Amino acid sequence: MLKAALFSSEEGLKSWKQWQMGARRPLRAAAARLLPAVYINLRGLATQEPWLETAKTEYLRARYSNLLRFDDAAPVLRALSARGLDFLLLKGAALIVGHYGDPGHRPMVDLDLLVREEQAGQAIEVLGAFGYTPAAPADAPARALVHSIPLTKTGAPPLDLHWRPFELDDARAVWEDVQEARLLDLPVRLPAPADLLLHACVSGSCWDWDAQPRWILDALAVIRSSGSRLDWGRFSSRVVELGLSPGVCDSLRFLREEFGAAIPAEVLKQLTSAPASAWGRRAARARCVRPDLRGPLLTFALRLDEHRRLVRRGVGRGGLLGLMHVWRRSWGLEHLWLLPVHAVLRGGRRAWQLARHRLGA
């Protein structure tokens, strides 16, 4: 299906026919979200048959839903601007406005906005005036430990407010290079193509319970539409600075080998040779493994990497005690003394899960 969405002419049609041979209803959500891109790529080429009609329906559904979402968001965005708050569109909204062009090309679940971390509290107040309520604690101490918070409103689609683009980013560099665009009749700003590509590649190097292949479409949309606007030097520097070289390099290599993405060889070479500790590489490996199948070594590497990032941002304690608090929060425990008890219980359960998985394999 990905090839049907990305390759034109005969190769795309051949892939579409091959996919239909094994297609069954109901489709998984991850597959259904690719259908609009298939329709846009193959309309006028493929014959009118039931699955193409389904793809057209999903395209029209995504277009209608996204236009309604943008219309609902416009008053909120105007209010943020009137309050003097900086914001950037993120993820689906930024990709549609800056790279896809067609609102039906890329389905969205919610609208993602990035504000400056020091203005997050004010932004939540503005959203509250429109009836949006945080779905999790949103005070300053809570915001220091997470990168975003969902806000909900009765009768309206959810909105995700970010103060960092994604969990592993620190946000400061994102504001240094932005691009101007328009959402409906409203002037807005987006992250630079290099930052949007970075976000897509990080999504591709992390496990998702829904096994989202959409990151491939997102990454290729940025690469194909940006041309010389894509600053590969900035991209590489950001990846190395954030310590994400192992995972992102794998994502880029996959895009180049499987879909012919125009990724400079020197970028792959630079990321491959970038310094990375053994624990950092294990953490990258842990992110792409299903959580219930991570062994103790990968889990420890992931918590160690999270602890290191919190300390670097100045919001976490150093040393063993700080690492233990990271682990406590990841398990949702109220007290530190519960950690060893849950370690034994979870360790036994995880060993049983891994054993069953290996025996089943």
Characteristics:
10% strand, two-stranded antiparallel sheet, Beta Polymerase, domain 2, 361 residues, 5-stranded mixed sheet, alpha+beta, 7 strands
Main sheet: which strands, in order across? 1-2-5-4-3
CATH class of the largest domain: Alpha Beta
**Percentage of residues in DSSP E strands:** 5-15%
How many domains make up the coordinates?
A: 2
Rg from alpha-carbon coordinates: 22 Å
Which shape, going by the Cα principal axes?
Answer: globular
- How far apart, in Å, are the first and last alpha carbons? 27 Å
Order of helices and strands: HHHHHEHEHEHEEEEHHHHHHHHH
Question: The CATH topology of the largest domain, please?
Answer: Beta Polymerase, domain 2
Q: Which percent range fits the helix content? A: 55-70%
Number of helices: 17
The biggest sheet, with number of strands, parallel, antiparallel or mixed sense and barrel status, is: 5 strands, mixed
What structural class do helix, strand and pairing data support?
A: alpha+beta
Q: For the residues shown, what is the average pLDDT?
A: 89
Low-confidence stretches: none
Number of strands: 7
CATH architecture of the largest domain: 2-Layer Sandwich
